[in-house]
Amino acid sequence: MQEEDFTESTSRPSKTKKKEAMHELRDLGAELVELSVGQLKKIKLPEEIYDAVRECQKITAHGAHRRQVAYLGKLMRNVDDEPIRAGLALLRGESSAEVARIHRLERMRQRLIDDEGALPELLALWPGLDMQQLRQLRRNALKEQEGNKPPKSFRAIFQLLQEQDGKPAPEAAETDDE
Fold first, then answer.
1. What count of Cα atoms within 13 Å lies in the side-chain half-sphere of residue 10?
2. CATH architecture, range 7-92
3. Domain 96-172, what architecture?
4. 58 vs 32, 33, 61, 62, 153, CA distance in Å?
5. What are 54-63's pLDDT values in tens digits?
6. Which regions of 81-159 does DSSP assign to beta strands (E)?
7. Residues whose CB is less than 8 angstroms from the CB of residue 101 and which lie 6 or more positions away in sequence, other chains included
8. pLDDT in tens, 160-172
9. DSSP per residue over 2-31, as a string?
10. What does the alpha-carbon distance between residue 147 and residue 159 come to, in Å, rounded to a whole number?
11. DSSP structural state of residue 79
12. What totals of helices (H) and strands (E) does the chain contain, helices first?
């Protein structure tokens, strides 16, 4: 009979586990408060969570800020936190998909620097790409490498590719309008 009582008590979470889960949600809320408005919009938070985060960002008094973070943690108990965690991981670059995307863009940039023949491939991938700007950045990057100068254009190529990769494909944009 005592064994049955023991198995029943382990089926539900202990008070300690519940408190740990609440503290994790509070810490997740505190992490959201540290983000910029643009980063918050990328995560696509529920309206009430977004409003609470923005309100907490405005509060400067330590005690009030702490209470608002606790309130934010309480609000987060009612929503699914997995999309929020995934969005934060994506922003931090911890997502394996995001890491793979960045590596792919770096390989494209290096192929472009090594061989100008990669330009048509990039144009086929992103029809809206400004070829003249990309050629100019490539020439400048090669000059920077020869002169042992800081890789300003090298970085600019990556940023340009990243902007293009972040935009939806023209076909996808047309289907959204319909």
1. 6
2. Orthogonal Bundle (1.10)
3. Orthogonal Bundle (1.10)
4. 13, 10, 9, 12, 37
5. 999 999 899 9
6. none
7. 165
8. 888 888 754 433 3
9. HHHHHHHHHSS--HHHHHHHHHHHHHHHHH
10. 22
11. S
12. 11, 0
Residues of the chain scoring pLDDT < 70? 1-10, 93-95, 167-178
Structure tokens belonging to residue 106: 């770096």
Closest CA to 66 of 22, 26, 37, 28: 26
pLDDT at residue 9, as a whole number = 53
Q: Report how far residue 122's alpha carbon sits from residue 131's, in angstroms, rounded to the nearest whole number.
A: 9
- Domain spans of the chain, in order of start: 7-92, 96-172
* pLDDT tens digits, one per residue of 15-25: 998 889 889 98
Same fold, 7-92 and 96-172: yes
The amino acid sitting at 35 is L
Cα 8 to Cα 13: distance, rounded to the nearest angstrom? 11
Q: What is the pLDDT of residue 58?
A: 92
Q: What are phi and psi of 35, to 5 degrees?
A: -85, 160
- Predicted model pTM: 0.50
CA distance between the termini of the chain: 65
* Residue that the structure tokens 């076909």 belong to: 171
Question: Can you tell me the distance from the alpha carbon of 65 to that of 72, in angstroms, rounded to the nearest whole number?
Answer: 10
Q: Quick check: 60 and 69 in contact, CB under 8 A? A: no
pLDDT at 40: 85
